[in-house]
Design goal:
Shape: globular
Order of helices and strands: EEHHHHHH
Strand content: under 5%
Structural class: mainly alpha
Largest sheet: 2 strands, antiparallel
Strand order of the largest sheet: 1-2
Oligomer: single chain
Radius of gyration: 22 Å
Helix content: over 70%
Number of strands: 2
Number of helices: 6
Distance between the termini: 41 Å
Length: about 170
């Protein structure tokens, strides 16, 4: 391993090259995340909070809509891919859970980044399933709506919740 001397002969620390690079990467990415969070906190107009609240309400609506039409959702997935039926049911329930829980969190501005992270895979899957549809070029396509929601989720993942949100105590 690499020996780092701390000034005394007894202060020798053994660090392998792998440990050194892992700690460097953790430090670099954590610094990047802190800089993105700082930028998001400083550059967040209040009108985007209205967009966040509307996005949250829309996702709650879509989650309830998916829940009411679960069989149609599972049928759509089964015609597009060739996984087992348990996988379709699990993905359908995850979509409902992510939309309803994530929509509630986005609406109130609580754990906004977590809400975005749990919904981004659902939206990527929606873009995949909708883009294989024959009617994707019709006016007001679901593909355009899915891409718009995905872009908004990525924005709120970076920007955070904003000034119009429920504040959680630090305790």
């Amino acid at each position: 391993g690499i020996h780092i001397f701390c000034g005394k002969k007894t202060g020798r620390i053994n660090v392998t090259l792998r440990q050194f690079f892992i700690s460097y990467l953790k430090l670099f990415y954590m610094d990047l995340l802190h800089r993105l969070e700082y930028w998001g906190d400083r550059h967040h107009p209040k009108w985007m909070d209205i967009v966040r609240i509307a996005l949250g309400l829309f996702l709650i609506y879509k989650g309830i809509d998916f829940l009411n039409n679960m069989s149609d959702l599972v049928t759509l997935m089964s015609t597009q891919t060739s996984f087992g039926s348990f996988t379709y049911i699990l993905a359908g329930h995850y979509s409902v859970f992510a939309h309803i829980l994530g929509g509630i969190l986005l609406t109130f501005g609580v754990l906004t980044r977590f809400a975005c992270i749990i919904q981004i895979p659902v939206l990527i899957g929606a873009i995949f399933f909708v883009s294989t549809n024959k009617e994707m070029l019709r006016p007001y396509s679901e593909l355009i709506l899915s891409i718009l929601v995905l872009l908004l989720l990525i924005y709120f993942l970076i920007a955070g919740n904003g000034p119009l949100s429920v504040k959680m105590s630090d305790k």
